[in-house]
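Chain A, query sequence.
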Amino acid sequence: MSASTVVSVLELAGLYVFATSGALMAIQKKFDVVGIVILALLTALGGGIVRDVVIGNTPPAAFSNGIYLIIPLIAAAVTFFAHPLVHRLSFPVLVFDAAGLGLFCVTGTLKALECHLGPVQAVLLGVVTAVGGGVLRDITARETPALVRVETDLYAIPAGAGATIVAVADRAGLHMPVIATSAALAVFLFRILAMVRHWTAPTAPAGRKR
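Chain A, predicted structure.
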């Protein structure tokens, strides 16, 4: 399996799980069907659109390939009808978001490397791809983005770790299909573990009171 095929498979899976994350949050916020579809599309496509614009892949895949719109719409429809089976919505939102985080940080990094960006730039673009849709989802749902909330369990750091693994493996010439899949799974597990153990990023030390 070639690297481009791995990117396509992981990206399509990421579209579905991120769209499901957006749709679940919309339902949790009691949005109507239009709001559910909009939030699913924003979550699934936001980070990828930013990535494609940065690397000069225009028009972005979301507008040039119909499957990139069809998959989030299917995810929104499935979630709309199946959500009564989900008794508590907040944790499923986070689980699907963690899955999308892992998949998109890998695909974003791989696409950047395909465009001959340096490893540091590729890692940065991988993180942007992973967190961009979630930021748009939270802003639209009138939530402070999880990316910048002080009490948020580790979010961008797992994405950065996964993107770094992919970039280093590419420089080392390792077998990318296995590395990419393993990195996506590692980011997912890292994020889930961070949520369970409530790991947070360090903050600046408080100044001494006079």
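The CA atoms of residues 137 and 143 lie 8 Å apart. The mean pLDDT is 87.
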